[in-house]
Amino acid sequence: MKISKGKSTRAGAQTTRNTDPLRLVRVLLTTYYHLKYLRDMTSVQMIAKDEMVERFLDCASRGDLANVSTMISHSSQLLNESGRQGWTGLMLAARNGHFDVVKALLLNGCNKYLANKSGQTAYDIAKFWGHRHIARFLASSGDVTLPGIQPRNKSTDNATYFSKEYLNRMSEKRTDSEWLSAKQSSPETVFIVFHNLDPFVTTEPEVMNDIQNKLKLYRFGRDSVKEVLENSDTVVVFLGVEKQECSPSSLVSKEDEHIAWFALNTKKNPTESLKITASNSFFLTKPMPMLLMLNEDEAGIVAQARSVLAWHSRYSFCPTCGGKTKVDEGGYKRSCLTDGCRSLQGIHNTCYPRVDPVVIMLVLHPDGNQCLLGRKKSFPPGMFTCLAGFIEPGETIENAVRREVLEESGVTIGPVQYISCQPWPMPSSLMIGCFAVAVSTDIKVDENEIEDARWFTRQEVIDALVKGHQAVFSMPPRQAIAHYLVKHWIGINSNL
Ligand SMILES: NC(=O)C1=CN([C@@H]2O[C@H](COP(=O)(O)OP(=O)(O)OC[C@H]3O[C@@H](n4cnc5c(N)ncnc54)[C@H](O)[C@@H]3O)[C@@H](O)[C@H]2O)C=CC1
Ligand SMILES: [Mg+2]
Ligand SMILES: [Mg+2]
Ligand SMILES: [Mg+2]
Ligand SMILES: [Zn+2]
């Protein structure tokens, strides 16, 4: 993580001031949006709120514990509010070494996992600025720990591509058809459109957003998808509402008033009936590897939307009686239309979106210095990855790991440890990533499933990560959990 040190103590957000050539552009844009924002506001109360946030951040930044405490006792919402560059009071207090303020904010329930626009949490900031006692406190506090339960592990929890939750799913609203239709007609609501499960994307960077990523989901408004929504072939899924931390300056307090997102899928190409204003916009064909080119927030949204839409496209008839079905619960249920069908009595998993659990494992040699990787015929030449396989009915994760490794490579596994997981929306798997320690080392490849499997040394793996194609083998893309597991094993920071 890169943070350049500057002189300012008000906000580390200003620390790149002397070196950043785009600063002037950003300042102008910020001023423009700020003025536009003020002009758009209708109530004096809103301005007062904005000022209050500014004052709160200032007090936190200066270490004014008395005022910080008074302000949060009046409005706990201030705890997670942020100012320029996404800096919260906690980050500012951590930046300037105000331990008492950090403590008070955390004790009052402030979210220590929020990151600013450079991706730094309060912990990262405290560590960088040398406030070790604050960093230690931030690392250890806040999580509820129970005997035998591991504390939340920031490095493995939600660390994989497709796993970031940008939206609050608000499942309780799925049965509230009045609320759902009000949201569908709201001018603020975001619609994302799929055609045969391919999302509509644009290469145009949105103003004020991160411009590093090449592809963005095209965010349609209600009027642009009107015709598509009226089409009987269109499937609509309610995805959720934007989380508070996605729009930190939002003045709306209740989550159900936040911006809602819906996904649409059509069989017929809807391009003509969509109102598209940006050039360079298209349906993203070839899910692999194209779906790996989205930014992390949007990858999470696609993981959810594409899996549910894929379920609709594959399960249009009732699996119990073969009859017609209708879409219910905001797209999260299909109910049979045949009177007396067994699926209408009680609860049946056939009515809900399916997820296929898959184990994926990095097999470690008993000497601790080699790992087992394999390749299928269909892989690009030279690429090796972790072994993987579908969990079968009535099987535990550990037993599935042992069975798949034995089937595919002939290697026997002892201990198995869960590391991390990844939704894989092609169409709807959950990859469960584990380390598996081998107790035998002879390899006997099952040629029906894989073409080759080999032990690679730690050095060969590091070379593959660092040198790419000049190494003895090549790694899967960084977005795949296999890549994550390998890096995790050799202890290389995932930002490498
Ligand atoms: N994200 C990542 O890093 C990686 C993801 N994967 C994914 O893991 C998944 C499973 O890996 P495989 O080695 O193919 O599994 P596998 O070793 O269990 O073999 C696949 C075979 O299992 C059978 N099968 C059993 N249940 C199935 C189900 N629910 N859906 C489809 N086929 C089923 C089929 O005959 C299929 O040909 C694949 O979808 C693959 O895309 C695989 C490697 C890396
Ligand atoms: Mg297998
Ligand atoms: Mg397999
Ligand atoms: Mg299998
Ligand atoms: Zn039925």
From TrEMBL:
Magnesium listed as a keyword: yes
SMART domains: ANK (SM00248)
Keywords: ANK repeat, Hydrolase, Magnesium, Metal-binding, NAD, NADP, Peroxisome
Name by which UniProt lists this protein: NAD-capped RNA hydrolase NUDT12
Function according to Swiss-Prot or TrEMBL: mRNA decapping enzyme that specifically removes the nicotinamide adenine dinucleotide (NAD) cap from a subset of mRNAs by hydrolyzing the diphosphate linkage to produce nicotinamide mononucleotide (NMN) and 5' monophosphate mRNA. The NAD-cap is present at the 5'-end of some RNAs; in contrast to the canonical N7 methylguanosine (m7G) cap, the NAD cap promotes mRNA decay. Preferentially acts on NAD-capped transcripts in response to nutrient stress. Also acts on free nicotinamide adenine dinucleotide molecules: hydrolyzes NAD(H) into NMN(H) and AMP, and NADPH into NMNH and 2',5'-ADP.
Entry keyword Membrane: no
Subunit text: Homodimer. Homodimerization is essential for its catalytic activity and protein stability. Interacts (via ANK repeats) with BLMH.
Subcellular localization, as worded in the UniProt entry: Cytoplasmic granule; Peroxisome
GO BP terms: NAD+ catabolic process; NADP+ catabolic process
Recorded GO MF terms: metal ion binding; NADH pyrophosphatase activity
Domain Nudix hydrolase: from-to ranges: 353-479
Name of the top EC class for this enzyme: hydrolase
Signal sequence residues: none
EC number assigned by the record: 3.6.1.22
Family: Belongs to the Nudix hydrolase family. NudC subfamily.
One GO location term (cellular component): peroxisome
Upper taxonomic lineage: Eukaryota, Metazoa, Chordata, Craniata, Vertebrata
ANK repeat residue numbers: 85-117
Cofactor needs: Zn(2+); Mg(2+)
Reaction equations catalysed: NADPH + H2O = reduced beta-nicotinamide D-ribonucleotide + adenosine 2',5'-bisphosphate + 2 H(+); NADH + H2O = reduced beta-nicotinamide D-ribonucleotide + AMP + 2 H(+); a 5'-end NAD(+)-phospho-ribonucleoside in mRNA + H2O = a 5'-end phospho-adenosine-phospho-ribonucleoside in mRNA + beta-nicotinamide D-ribonucleotide + 2 H(+); NAD(+) + H2O = beta-nicotinamide D-ribonucleotide + AMP + 2 H(+)
InterPro entries according to UniProt: Ankyrin_rpt, Ankyrin_rpt-contain_sf, NAD-cap_RNA_hydrolase_NudC, NADH_PPase-like_N, NudC-like_C, NUDIX_hydrolase-like_dom_sf, NUDIX_hydrolase_CS, NUDIX_hydrolase_dom
